[in-house]
Design brief:
4 helices; globular; three-stranded antiparallel sheet; 117 residues; single chain; alpha+beta
Length: 117
Amino acid sequence: MRSNLKPAEKLVGVAMALYPDYETGGNVCPSNGTIARQLGYGGKAPEQTVNKIVGRLRKAGWLTKTGKVPDGPVIYRLTLPRQGGMADTTYIPSRTTAVRARSQRRRVSRKAKSGSP
């Protein structure tokens, strides 16, 4: 499958893929601020930058909005975009991928708590 996504869109998509319920591919709800911090986005409005990129991922068919946490982030489901009339397919990573992603989140969390770069 070819992707016309820009590098920043791919990066945000990969960061979002660290957060789903690994059984269903749903319940992806990191805040834009969390994604911006993890990816090192700076400047005046890093959360707005992530928000624009998430909008482009939704338009491209990689994320589907499924709800919203009250006073919190939007909930998404990871999807594969429609290709040649095929229906959307939920992204479900393998168990190995899920374990690696969980380990990565823990490392990022420990770094953030310790203030390490």
